[in-house]
Every structure is written in structure tokens, then in C-alpha cells.
Amino acid sequence: MRIDVNAFLGAYPFRRVPGTSPEQLLGAMDRTGVDEAWVTHLPGIFWRDPHEGNAWLLDTGGRHRRLRPVPAIQPEIAGWDEVLRVAVSARAPAVRCDPTFHGIAPSGAAMRKLAAACAAAGLPLMLAVRLEDGRQRHPNDAAGELPAAAVRALIRADPALRLVVTHADRPFIEEVHFGSTPEEARRLWWDVSWVWGPPEDHLQTLIGNVGSDRFVFGTGQPLRLPENGVAKLDLLDLDEEARAAIESGNAGRLRGPAR
Amino acid sequence: MLIDVHAHFLHDRTPRADWRERNASRLRAGERVGITFHVASILGSWGHTSPTYFPSPADCRYGNDRMLDLQREHAGRIRGYVAVNPNYTDDALSEIRRCLDAGMIGIKLAASRRADDRLLDPVCRLAAERGVPVLHHVWQHRRRDYPAQEASDARELATLAGRHPTVPFILAHIGGGGDWLHSLPLLRAVPNILVDLSGSGVDGGMLEACLDAVGVERLLWGCDLTIETGWAKLRYLEYLLPAEEIELVRWRNAARIFPRGAFPAD
Question: Do the Cβ atoms of B227 and A230 come within 8 Å?
Fold first, then answer.
């Protein structure tokens, strides 16, 4: 079983990306042995009202049961709490918010309200540090990357909040993990998509220092090749139990009740 | 056969206390991936006693000596590029001669001097004379001067390659930072530049764009600092391409541009 917690559907506004339809994503999942993908409506992240992409996303999830919708929430737009209720009733595995892309304070009052609401609803909140390498972004794609300080602030904001952070590298993960109490750190999960393998062995080091129970399989596809996540795991020295936890076990415990 | 055309090793006079572990990790991961040859360079002292991209001649010599040691210790697995700083022309030329005579198979130019600068011409004339390729560090679309390096982009490398049409130039790490979509159209009409696929970038659509821009016969497989991204790109290419074309990317294109006999099967 392999669950990709970090996948997208729909066009990317800053360059042409192949394979963004549900059918093409399912094909890529078949190619790389991914059984289930948590998907977000990619163009919606860049819309003034990201909620407008969620209806299509939920409908797509209803038609393709391997695709689990992760609706986007912008907590400074009125009605966001209704989006959260719909996500809960649709049994979404998580909701996401990308504050720097929405132009809102990453750990400001609105984000803290969203964090508290997600905690109350028992739904993990997903945040991406980045979507593309900062060195190649479109000149007009000027949104900042998610600061590690914001993740530390949010995890402290509510004792029941669970955060899934994608596209983080080793320094980011270490800064937040060791900048949190053990109790706070147990409510943080990191996807492996942006963590380097050998010869630097960042992922191997993190699994040793932070623990395999804190990592989930994620790829960032179709913006990034899903083969990268699998290759990264194949290069680890990891027992079967730890690998299974990263590939699906940890995500399985995170998500809401299976449909 | 699988040739990584863009690898690096460390040594005892670099800032890295874990240099042995990193070197061992590269070889261990290479075994898992099936890398037959790591074609590698050492950029001086990697910043320990002179800047990585502006290495002193003494640091170049020490790094190249360690590279030669590695090539001797792992004769069936490692080949070397001689790394030089072209600002020190006489040193660079003598160092290239010394290291090629000792068995290295290519020249590495990083970011000590812009690629289109005439100061690189003597190095490239020597590459032509000795029949070796030049691997040139490239920032894909340099929009400004970045700190600690005098980086070049594809346009500047294309200017250099145009002045030296018999030398194969390897455009370094198309996935290694910067806008690869800017680089690729510039390479279409410069047949002596090959594209090294290494780098941490594994963008969807990048490999298709490479194939469209330069064709499968000008693609070289490599990893640079992240072996998993190299393996991922190889796996995806195996899905995209027929078996005979995969062989070109895996090793045949590399065997074509390095000196005959550099690899046992070429």
C-alpha cells in the first residue's frame, strides 16, 4: 500500500505541466505503484477565492475513489468555516491552506482560527513550504515560502491541531522539530518530497533523528516526477515496518474514516 | 552500463567532517542504482581554504590529486574530470595536461569566469587537442550575479561552444537550479552542447522538454548532489523511451564524447 499525500489536479499557472487531469494522474499512480493520492485543485491555490476549486475537486473524488480530495481553505474569506464542514462531511483526509500564496499572514489571526477549527473538527491541516524550486520560479511568481517560524507558531496555537507539512527540506524540518516540545512534534507530519537522499543522506539522517513515525510519502506530482519519492525510499536503509509506516501507515492513521 | 557524468567527491581538506561517509554513500547508492562509472570532480577545497567556485591553483591541485587517488582506488568505478580555475591560465593548462596524462578523461569548469570570456579559449583549445569534453557549471537563466560564483547560463556557454565546434561541451545539471525552460531553446542550434540531466529538480515536463529541444542523442545521465533524483529521471525515461534510446542516455552518448577507451565497454 502506498499513499501519496501530496498530489495535485489541474493546470499550473506559471508553466505548462503535463499529466494534470484525473485520468493522467491515475496513470502516473499506476506507473509508480501509488494506490491512493490526496489531491488538491492546483489552479485554485492561485485564485482570489481558492474555495471555488473545491466543488470540482470533491466531484472528482466522488468519481475516482483512489483520489482523496484535500480542499483548500482561505480563512480570510467569509464562509471558510462552511468549507471545513463540507470537507468533514465528505470525509476528506485533510484540508490545506497556503497562506503565502493567498497573501495572508502565515501565523496571523485568521490562520490561528483555522488551526483551532481544524483541531476541533479532528481534521489535519496541510501546508506547503513551496511548490517549485525558488531558483526557477516565474518572475511574477513572487509569493514567499512558508516560514518555519509559522509552523512552530501554529503547532503551539492549539493542543489538538495536527499539521502535515509538504515540500520541506532537512533544515526546515529540523528547525521545527527541535524547536517544538516532544508533544508538539508528535502532532507534526512531514512529506518526503523535498528531502535529499544520498550522498547527503538527509532523509536517512532525519529518520534516525526525528523518527520514521513523523514522515509520510509525498511526491508533489504532477509538478514533480512521482518516481522521485519511490527512488528515495528505495535508497534508504530501512526495515520493512518503518518503510510501510512512511509509505502508508502514518498517512492511514492521519486521515479521516475510510469511505 | 550506466554512466553518471556529473558526480563529486570530498576529501580531508574540505569543510566537511563527514567527507568519508559522503564518498562512501555515493558509491553505496551507486551500487543500488547500478551506476557503472561515476565521472567526478573535486572543486578545490570546497570552500575550506579558497572559495568553491574560485579555487586557488594550490587547492585545485590538491583536489585533483585526491580525485586521481579515488580513480586509482576505484579503477573499475570512478573516472575523473580535472577541475581548474581559468583565471590562472598557465596553472590551468599545466594542471589539465598533468591530470589528463595521469588518466583523467575530461575538464570541469565551474564558475570562476563567465563562459563566453576569451580567457576560456586556451582551455578549450587544449580540450580540442586532447579530445576531451568540458563539463561547464551552468545556472539555467542567470538573471543577475549570484553571490560566490561567476555563473554562466546557456547563452554564454553556447557562445563558447560556437567558438570551439570540435569540443563537446556538457551543460551541467539542467535540473540543478534556474529556469531550464530558458536554457533549452538556446541549445537547439548548438550541436556540440549536450545536456546533463542531473540536479535536484525533477519537474514534470522537464525531460519531455529536453528531448524536444536537443533529441535523445544529446542527453547525458547524471546525478550531481542527489542520486535519488537521477534515479527517478532514469525510471521515467525508461517509461518514455524505447530500449535502444535508453541505452543512449544511460551510457552510449557519454562513451561517444569521452576519449575512446575511457570505459571498458565503449
Answer: no
| Shortest alpha-carbon distance between residue A15 and chain B (Å) | 9
What's the pTM? 0.97
Q: What are phi and psi of A205, to 5 degrees?
A: -65, -45
| Interface residue A205 vs chain B (CB under 8 A) | no
Mean pLDDT across the stretch A5-19? 98
Residue ranges of domains in chain A: 3-254
Helix, strand, or coil (residue A83): helix
> In the structure, what pLDDT confidence band is assigned to residue A259 with cuts at 50, 70 and 90?
very low
- Cα–Cα separations (whole angstroms), residue B203 to A67, A172, A228: 21, 21, 10
**B55: domain CATH number?**
3.20.20.140
Say whether A224 and B203 touch across the interface (CB within 8 A): yes
Contacts of residue B228 in chain A, CB cutoff 8 Å?
196-198, 228, 231-232, 235
Domain extent at residue B241 = 3-257
Phi and psi for B110 in degrees, rounded to 5?
Answer: -105, -100
Residue B182 lies in a domain: yes
A153 phi/psi in degrees, rounded to 5:
-65, -40
Min Cα–Cα distance to chain A from B46, Å: 15
The length of chain B is 266
Cα distance between residue A113 and residue A186, in whole Å = 21
Q: Which residue shows C-alpha cell 529541444?
A: B213
What's the whole-number average pLDDT of chain B? 97
Express each pLDDT in A171-188 by its tens digit. 999 999 999 999 999 999
Residue with the three cell numbers 590551468: B92
Contact check, Cβ <8 Å, B140/A136: yes
pLDDT value of residue A258: 34
The Cα–Cα gap between B255 and B122 comes to 25
For the stretch B41-50, pLDDT in tens is 999 999 999 9
- Of the candidates A18, A135, A222, the beta carbon closest to that of B177 is on A135
Q: What are phi and psi of B252, to 5 degrees?
A: -65, -40
**Residue at B240 is within a domain:** yes
Query: Do the domain assignments include residue B264?
Result: no
**pLDDT at A256 (0 to 100):** 53
Statement: residue B3 has pLDDT above 70: yes
Q: Cα–Cα distance between A191 and A129 in angstroms, integer?
A: 11
d(CA B132, CA B263): 13
Q: A3-254 sits in which CATH class?
A: alpha beta
